[in-house]
């Protein structure tokens, strides 16, 4: 199922429309209203208020700008973009907005869009194979100028199809390794999380891995393996359990890990949701975090610092990723070296980890 929601500058589209049935909501002041109040032509007002051209300092221009300000006129960026052959809309495709990580990404993209004088439309896919194609078609029919996708899947050729169609797009959080992408350094983040546990004296470190089709998950697994190898330890297959990035799958993975004859003393979950699920499962099993098991999550969503046991997590700079995504989308040409923008993660230690 594909769900389409409309946002402008970070607000739902309902806020975009004048509600003439509500006396507290005033109709939008148009350029024609300013022209009538100033006694000049509509084209003159447009010229005097256009911030892209040198500002006229004539008495008429100053008077028009003052009248516009007094009337509360706000330039309609989308309308002016449409006149130039663009709508000012950017389509964003995410697996789901109930996932806090994707909601944080979308909010950051909405902020970046507002700074660029644009607005965003979001479509959700539930991470179903092929759903991003349907979402893209719907968004493109609505006239978006380009797409930002966080749904890239390993082995899928959808990005090739977009290239062949000449659709401007950027990948965010996930990458296919070749197209324009704005991502976090997932390998480094996985390394930092595992290195933290190693530095605390843990040598039996379990991993709750994400889906293998997501580059973000596989990158964090790579970082986990790298840190273990650097410490002269083996990444034991029985200590690596997959997940769907969901809370329930994180809980199931934790139960499997702690049911082993030789169970880990620490767990790195490649997503905060799976870490939250693991924390719940461990508590129900009568195990204490961090006294029995240390636990590290990933993404540092806001709730994890407010849990009864604050979660150690790897923080991702979503605003930086969003800004880079818009820069890449608007750039006419990008060198191979700059095609994939990588933001640096930071480990945030909290109460869910302690020395062994």
Automatic annotation (TrEMBL):
The keyword Ribonucleoprotein does not apply. Residues 29-84 form the HTH lacI-type domain. InterPro entries: HTH_LacI, LacI/GalR-like_sensor, Lambda_DNA-bd_dom_sf, Peripla_BP_I. Keywords: DNA-binding, Transcription, Transcription regulation. PROSITE patterns: HTH_LACI_1, HTH_LACI_2. The keyword Signal does not apply. This is LacI family transcriptional regulator. It comes from Rhizobium aquaticum.
């Amino acid at each position: 199922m594909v769900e389409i929601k409309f946002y402008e500058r970070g607000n739902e589209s309902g806020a975009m429309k004048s509600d003439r049935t509500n006396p507290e909501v005033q109709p939008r002041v148009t350029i024609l209203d300013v022209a009538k109040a100033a006694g000049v032509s509509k084209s003159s007002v447009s010229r005097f208020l256009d911030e892209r051209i040198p500002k006229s300092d004539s008495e008429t221009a100053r008077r028009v700008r003052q009248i516009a300000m007094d009337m509360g006129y706000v330039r309609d960026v989308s309308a002016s973009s449409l006149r130039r052959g663009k709508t000012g809309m950017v389509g964003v495709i995410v697996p789901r907005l109930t996932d806090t990580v994707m909601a944080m990404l979308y909010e950051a993209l909405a902020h970046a869009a507002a700074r660029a004088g644009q607005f965003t439309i979001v479509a959700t896919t539930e991470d179903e194979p092929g759903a991003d194609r349907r979402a893209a078609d719907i968004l493109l029919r609505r006239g978006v100028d380009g797409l930002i996708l966080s749904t890239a899947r390993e082995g899928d050729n959808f990005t090739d199809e977009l290239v062949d169609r000449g659709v401007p797009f950027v990948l965010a959080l996930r990458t296919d390794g070749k197209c324009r992408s704005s991502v976090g350094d997932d390998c480094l983040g996985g390394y930092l999380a595992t290195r933290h546990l190693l530095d605390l004296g843990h040598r039996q470190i379990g991993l709750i891995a994400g889906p293998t089709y997501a580059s973000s998950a596989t990158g964090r697994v790579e970082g986990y393996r790298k840190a273990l190898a650097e410490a002269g330890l083996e990444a034991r297959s029985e200590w690596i359990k997959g997940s769907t990035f969901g809370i329930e799958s994180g809980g199931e993975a934790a139960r499997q890990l702690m049911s082993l004859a030789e169970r880990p003393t620490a767990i790195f979950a490649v997503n905060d949701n799976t870490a939250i699920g693991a924390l719940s499962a461990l508590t129900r099993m009568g195990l204490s975090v961090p006294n029995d098991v240390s636990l590290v999550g990933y993404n540092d969503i806001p709730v994890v610092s407010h849990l009864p046991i604050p979660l150690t997590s790897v923080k991702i700079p979503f605003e930086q990723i969003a800004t880079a995504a818009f820069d890449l989308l608007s750039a006419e040409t990008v060198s191979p070296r700059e095609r994939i923008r990588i933001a640096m993660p930071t480990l945030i230690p909290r109460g869910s980890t302690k020395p062994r």
